[in-house]
Design brief:
Largest sheet: 8 strands, antiparallel
Strand order of the largest sheet: 3-2-4-1-10-9-11-14
Bound molecules: 5-amino-5-deoxy-1-O-phosphono-D-mannitol
CATH superfamily of the largest domain: Aminohydrolase, N-terminal nucleophile (Ntn) domain
CATH topology of the largest domain: Glutamine Phosphoribosylpyrophosphate, subunit 1, domain 1
Helix content: 25-40%
Length: 626
């Protein structure tokens, strides 16, 4: 067992802080958090270990546990998966309070020092956090000024989280009690967070949330706090979900919940969980695919939080290269095509998009004047990696747009951009795709020297999505799916920015519902596919309010007059539609609005047809072979 006094030198690392400042980056994470307080006298660290194993799907690059024991604060941190740790390490750590954290970093270093919990200087306060403290730089400056100490003397890690224990510590020194210091700190945080704090000698945990998940489980003389219920489902099914900007004081004797703003008492609403443990890991949704579709507003919010410098550096590289090739496979190939279109229309730069497996023929054109831009969720797709290795041999620069830090593409690239959406578990790519679109849009605006405009647009998009992408939308689409579920064929048409979305819609429907689906550019219909249209043939028409609208309406008229049953995906209604899926009008970001209802449609078609949408037949999440 490691006690706090033995940890002091291990955790302090001024070099890490200097490296961090030099890199100008900060850590963003999805993460799983766990807290326990109760009359359980033994094996409290083991309890945290089991909980973190159940939360591992949320983050798995490093982990940490702290527990209050009669001998002092037990601390254990490590890089790697918690499930790789040996259970025996945690046995025999007795106590009544523990916190644990499983981390999924998307920016910056995966290291023991960056793993949670984070501490104040004398390590009496242990903090675990899921989310982003967006104003951490300002808070660092505040602490430096107030405490009159250098960064090196205060901060150990590269994380945004570490400001929290130091702020609590500062307010304690100002004469506030633990709860008051915690509340003052909470009021200063901007961004998203779920935070749990343990203080040596205090018999309770404090927690708060804004935007990031936090659920409380109530047992007999004990409480559990976690990012998701599976962490404690073996112990209790009575749960309550605190609201945004509410904080909790939890001891073995009871729980008190208050508003962070004005201290008003909030009555907890306890409910009984009826799911089994496996489905509970999906935050209450029946499948990961649905969970991931519905979390897109948040995923988009994370994706658009890019460092300006990173975007501008990538845009500079794109601008100065003679030949720009976007490359990806499957869904990522469709997003690569969108990259090409955005580069041309918003960024005024000619580019060409290729499907990874078809790139070999063009490898001979790669040279020092060209740039390969890889789009990939996993960063491990074999066909894309092969193209990148050809590029490397020829001195071609590489930019990658990725979700997984430390992946092969991350290591092979000169510049990397991360979508920061957290693990995508369902095989069908959903939230990664729209997050890729968001970053490609920002990049195109940076390329066109109008990044500010792009950021403004994307903030509006996120706001719209937060209102629109809800369970109500899912229910609405399920009704449409009921009507379409017995079809054998489904066609999707779109033009311009929505032509790649027509292709993406087809792949989504194919892979989970197993319905034969094909996407076409609207203008291609009369060159062949229109021969397939008969009375009742189902066609989805993607018709945004942009320059493609008039042509799309005329293509739809051609289909309608041949008897097609039209499902219009559009901000405006048209008499051509047999079904209308109304989407928000979000300008050049329309591919995001067109795609989300189709993802839901694919999902509901799969479920209605008795398929498991999370694990479609014949497919794997990551295609690491050619
Ligand atoms: O990890 P990647 O983004 O490189 O994966 C590429 C494709 O294998 C992937 O998008 C696949 O097409 C998805 N199953 C589509 O939903």
């Amino acid at each position: 067992m490691m006690l706090e006094h033995r940890q002091a030198t291990v955790f302090f690392c001024p070099k890490a802080w200097k490296l961090f400042c030099g890199a100008g980056c900060y850590i963003k994470h999805m993460c799983g958090i766990f807290g326990y307080v109760g009359e359980r006298q033994s094996d409290v660290a083991l309890l945290a270990y089991w909980a973190l194993r159940d939360l591992e799907y949320r983050g798995y690059d490093s982990w940490g546990i702290a527990a209050m024991t009669p001998e002092g604060i037990y601390i254990k941190k490590s890089v790697g998966k918690i499930s790789d740790a040996n259970e025996r390490e945690f046995r025999g750590v007795s106590g009544k309070i523990a916190v644990g954290h499983s981390r999924w970093a998307t920016h910056g270093g995966v290291s023991e020092v960056n793993s949670h919990p984070h501490f104040n200087r004398d390590r009496t306060i242990s903090v675990i956090h899921n989310g982003i403290v967006e104003n951490h730089n300002e808070l660092r400056a505040f602490l430096r000024e107030k405490l009159g100490v250098s960064h090196e003397d205060l901060f150990v890690s590269e994380t945004d989280t570490e400001v929290i224990p130091h702020l609590i510590d500062y307010f304690l020194r100002e004469g506030k009690n633990f709860e008051q210091a915690f509340v003052e700190t909470g009021k200063m945080l901007e961004g998203r967070y779920a935070v749990v704090v343990m203080k040596k000698g205090e018999p309770y945990l404090l927690a708060m949330r804004d935007g990031s998940p936090l659920v409380v489980g109530e047992g007999r003389d004990e409480y559990y706090l976690a990012s998701d219920v599976p962490a404690f489902l073996d112990h209790t099914r009575t749960v309550c979900y605190p609201g945004d900007r509410e904080y909790l004081k939890v001891s073995a004797d009871g729980m008190m919940m208050r508003s962070l703003e004005n201290g008003t008492k909030v009555e907890p609403k306890w409910i009984e969980i009826v799911w089994d443990k496996v489905s509970a890991t999906k935050e209450g949704h029946a499948h990961y695919m649905l969970k991931e579709i519905l979390e897109q507003p948040l995923a988009l919010d994370k994706a658009i939080h890019q460092e300006d410098e990173q975007l501008l550096a990538a845009a500079r590289l794109m601008k100065e290269r003679e030949h720009l090739f976007f490359i990806g496979c499957g869904t990522a190939a469709k997003m690569a095509k969108l990259g090409e279109l955005y580069a041309a229309t918003v960024g005024e730069k000619l580019a060409t998009a290729f499907v990874g497996s078809e790139f070999n023929t063009y490898g001979r054109f790669l040279d020092r004047k060209s740039l390969l831009f890889a789009v990939s969720q996993s960063g491990e797709t074999a066909d894309v990696l092969e193209a990148l290795s050809i590029g490397r041999k020829k001195g071609t620069k590489i930019i990658s747009l990725l979700n997984v830090v430390g992946s092969s593409m991350d290591r092979m690239s000169d510049q990397k951009l991360f979508i920061n959406t957290g693990p995508e578990i369902a095989v069908a790519s959903t939230k990664a795709a729209t997050a890729q679109i968001a970053v490609l849009i920002l990049l195109a605006y940076a390329l066109g020297k109008k990044l500010g405009e792009g950021k403004h647009l994307m903030r509006k998009v996120v706001k719209e999505m937060k209102q629109w992408v809800t369970l109500d939308l899912s229910r609405e689409i399920r009704i449409v799916a009921q009507k379409l579920k017995d079809t054998n064929d489904l066609y999707i048409i779109g033009r311009g920015l929505n032509a790649p979305i027509a292709h993406e819609a087809a792949i989504k429907i194919q892979e989970v519902s197993y319905i034969h689906a094909e996407g076409f550019p609207g203008g291609e219909l009369k060159h062949g596919p229109i021969a397939l249209i008969q009375k009742g043939t189902l066609v989805i028409a993607l018709i945004p309010n942009d320059e493609t609208k008039r042509d799309m309406e005329s293509n739809t008229t051609e289909l309608k007059s041949r008897g097609a049953y039209i499902i219009g995906v559009s901000p405006s209604h048209s008499p051509l539609f047999d079904e209308w899926i109304q989407v928000p009008d979000i300008g050049v970001a329309s591919p995001i609005a067109s795609l989300i209802p189709i993802q839901l449609l694919a999902y509901h078609l799969a479920v209605l047809r008795g398929n498991d949408p999370d694990k479609p037949r014949n497919l794997a999440k990551s295609v690491t072979v050619k």
